[in-house]
Each structure stands twice: as C-alpha cells, then as structure tokens.
TrEMBL record, chain A:
Enzyme's top EC category: oxidoreductase
Origin: domain of life: Bacteria
Cofactor: Fe(3+)
Annotated function: Destroys radicals which are normally produced within the cells and which are toxic to biological systems. Destroys superoxide anion radicals which are normally produced within the cells and which are toxic to biological systems. Catalyzes the dismutation of superoxide anion radicals into O2 and H2O2 by successive reduction and oxidation of the transition metal ion at the active site.
Protein name: Superoxide dismutase
Catalyzed chemical reaction(s): 2 superoxide + 2 H(+) = H2O2 + O2
Cellular component terms (Gene Ontology): cytoplasm
PROSITE patterns for the chain: SOD_MN (PS00088)
C-alpha cells in the first residue's frame, strides 16, 4: 500500500481552545504530511511494499529505522486525530470499557492521573498509551515513532507528546496539555471501538 | 526570571571566559554572592550574557526566554532536587558525574542523565552563542578546514546531521584531545561526555528550540542558527579542549 493523508475528522478550529487551529494546521498539514511523503519514498523498493500499515510498522521496527520512524508516525497520527473530538473527555464512558478500566487500572480517575503521568514522564519526543496486551489494559510510554504495536500490544488510546503537539498552545507546560487532553479531548467512542477490535 | 533580576545577575556574572576554564562550573557560579539559590542547591542556572532579543529574527525573544528561564531552569531545579538526597552529585565536577553515570544510584540514574545532560548541553549552548559573533579563525578554522572539509561543507554536513536526528536531540561537533573534529548527534539530552567525548559546540534540535518561529521547518532553523554563533567563544572552547580544561 502507499500511505495517504486523510482529512481531519473535524474542522481545524473544532478543538479550540484546548488545541488550536494553528496547532492542528501545522500538525496535520505539515508534520503528518511529511511522515506520509517520506514514508512513501522510503517504502519504494523494499520488501514491505504492498503490505498493510500495521505489517510495515511491525516489520520495519529494528530493521529499517528511517522507514519505521515515518510509518510508525503515520500509524500513530492516523489514530491520534480520531482519539480526539470536540467536547470530548468527561466521565461518561461506554460501559464495557469503563468496567475494564476499573478492573485493570483502578478506575477512571486513577487512569487519568496515571496516563497523564506517563505522558509527563516520557522524556523527549514520544507518546503515552493505553493498550491491550494479553487481554488486559495497560498504560505505557514510547519514544519518537514507537507504539505498543511493536511491543506485542494493541493501542486503543494514545497522546502525542512531541513538543509540536502542544508548543504553540502550552509552550513548555506539557502537564497542562495532558490534562486538557484527558478532560476535554478524548473521543471515548473511538477508544471503545479500538478496544472492541483488540479483545 | 524577570528582566530585572536577569540584569542584576548579568552585572555579577564573572563572564563566559572564566566559566570555560573553571574546573567546577557549578561551584564557580554558586560562589557568587548574589546567586539566590546558593547554599544547599549546588546547580545554578547560568544567566544569559546577552538580552533575549539578541538573535532576532533568527531566534525570537520569546523562544529565548522560555528556553532559558523554563526549559533550562527545569533541568537545574530537578538536579537540585536529586542533590538533596544525593549530595555527591553536586559536589563532584559535572564532567565526572556525567562521565560515570554507572556510579550514580539506580533510582536517579536516568534522571541525572536527562537533567544533568540537559544542564550541560544548554550551558554550552548559551556559551557559544552571542551577538556579532564574527567568523571562525586561527586554530579552530584550521581544524575545520583539516577535519571537516572547510566551513561551507562543515555547515552543510552539520545541518544535514541535525535534520536527520529523528525526534528530540542535539547535533554536536566533537573535539578530541588532539583537537580533531567530527560531527555527531545524540538523542534527547545525552551529551558526548557520557561516552568519554567532548563537545566543542552544538545545536539544540528539540522542537522547543525553534517551534515558535519555524514550526516544522527545522532545516530553516538550522541554517539561521549560524547567525547566532560566537566564534570567539568557540575558539576559546577549542583551546580549552586541547588543554583538557573544558568544564562543560
Ligand atoms: Fe505529532
Ligand atoms: Fe533545549
């Protein structure tokens, strides 16, 4: 397959004031576009041509760093746009997901705290994750373009903690960005959809 | 830091040249009487020796302010927190601590790597920048010609290496004991001291170093940054590296 950049699933100004139009323009139109363009160039002539995005991400990890970085970031950002929505966040989760978060992670409030802490604790560029591994939910963090996909897990929620994701709106205040993300941006229906596919 | 207190600190600062050769940078500065956190906080944020507007339009004033007063200050504050329970990390010279991370207690090793690395990198970074920075000359120019193919090729290769560093990190010019130069990159806040090498100079390619002006255009930032380099300071660091007296 070749990589293509999908449109955002909402207007560029739809997530303001938690994530500005300007941030989304650069993040989607420039950063994500660059991963798509570079990924397609790097894919040409490799054994991965014609494979699915997930296969490319898993197959290139540890073998072809440049391709992995771009394919990994394409995968991460594809989902990232959908993991957010206007008027997201809140405490009303689909029932089966809320039950699982309570069982595995000690409840929604504890999840929010621990997930944000994982994002704060990722030193340098990277991501914080909620994923399913061997039927259980877990929180993790990864550097740069990595995701739980290359660690035997299926991501169901991720937040981009590269500085480009929050620097225009929050400057150095990454904790404020993460709080806004969990309180006002998370699209729990999309998380639940990914959860349903993973279990 | 307010502009008032920065101005005040600039008056009492002993200057970069002294810091280059001071074997224990943190202590040399901690000894200054006007330093507000001197005492049980051994790590000190070195004040900028030029105004935050000094590099407009290449680096905007807001970026300079946040970069120094927030990002670098956070690395310093985190180190002082570690030093409360583990004072030895603030007592030894920075080069000794960063060069022997294995002897730092497990519980704080990663924190020291990240935060002392960040302190070292940014201290060097502010030091080698300055207004009206001139051109490379003398020994360092000869080394650039000899080892890096001349100034133009050096700058092209350095910018390319900085562009290839995926995610947050630094691009450095490494200087060995004989004065031989090479270009290397490191992720995050790793510093060449960690693997027994020394940085002559380096550029920060974390997005915080350029995002407010350049956004995704890192290549433009890398090009423009050369307008901020103070070649006199680079020349001093080159001499200090060969003499084995580079403090950071
Ligand atoms: Fe991103
Ligand atoms: Fe920095």
């Amino acid at each position: 397959m070749t990589f293509t950049l999908p449109n955002l699933p909402y207007a560029y100004d739809a997530l303001a004031p938690h994530m500005s139009k300007e941030t989304l323009e650069f993040h989607h139109d420039k950063h994500h576009q660059a991963y798509v363009t570079n990924g397609n160039n790097l894919l040409k002539g490799t054994e991965f041509e014609g494979k699915s995005l997930e296969e490319i991400v898993k197959g290139s990890f540890g073998k072809n760093a440049a391709l992995f970085n771009n394919a990994g970031q394409h995968y991460n950002h594809l989902h990232f746009w959908n993991w957010m929505k206007p008027n997201g966040g809140g405490d009303k989760l689909p029932g089966r997901l809320e039950k699982k978060i309570t069982e595995d992670l000690g409840g929604l409030e504890k999840f929010k705290t621990d997930f944000a802490a994982a994002g704060v604790g990722q030193f340098g560029s990277g991501w914080a994750w909620l994923s399913v591994k061997n039927g259980k939910l877990e929180i993790s963090k990864t550097a740069n373009g990595e995701s739980p996909l290359v660690h035997g897990a299926t991501p169901i929620l991720g937040v981009d903690v590269w500085e480009h994701s929050y620097y225009i709106d929050y400057r150095n205040r990454r904790p404020d960005y993460l709080k806004a993300f969990v309180d006002h941006l998370v699209n729990w229906e999309y998380v639940d959809e990914q959860f349903g596919k993973a279990v | 830091m307010s502009s008032m207190s920065r101005r005040h600190l600039m008056l009492v600062a002993t200057g970069i040249a002294a810091a280059v050769v001071a074997p224990r940078l943190a202590f040399a500065q901690a000894a200054a009487p006007a330093t507000p956190t001197a005492g049980n906080a051994p790590f000190i944020l070195p004040p900028l020796t030029y105004p935050v507007t000094a590099f407009e339009p290449h680096i905007d004033a807001k970026t300079m302010e946040i970069h120094h007063d927030r990002h670098h200050a956070a690395y310093v504050a985190n180190m002082n927190n570690f030093a409360k329970d583990t004072p030895v990390i603030g007592e030894k010279p920075l080069v000794e601590v960063l060069g022997n991370l294995n002897s730092v207690p497990d519980a704080i090793r990663t924190g020291v790597r990240n935060n002392l690395g960040g302190h070292a990198n940014h201290t060097m970074f502010w030091q080698i920048m300055g207004p009206n920075g001139g051109k490379p000359e003398g020994d360092v120019l000869a080394a650039i010609d000899r080892d890096l193919g001349g100034l133009e090729k050096f700058q092209t290769d350095f910018n390319a290496a900085g562009g290839r560093q995926f995610g947050s990190g630094w691009v450095f010019v490494i200087v060995d004991k004989d004065g031989k130069l090479s270009i290397e990159t490191r992720p995050n806040q790793d510093n060449p001291i960690m693997d027994g090498k020394r940085a002559l100079m380096g550029n920060d390619v974390w997005e915080h170093a350029y995002y407010l002006t350049y956004q995704n255009r890192r290549a433009d930032y890398l090009k423009a940054w050369w307008n901020t380099v103070n070649w006199t300071k680079v020349g001093e660091r080159y001499a200090a590296a060969k003499a084995g007296t580079l403090a950071v």
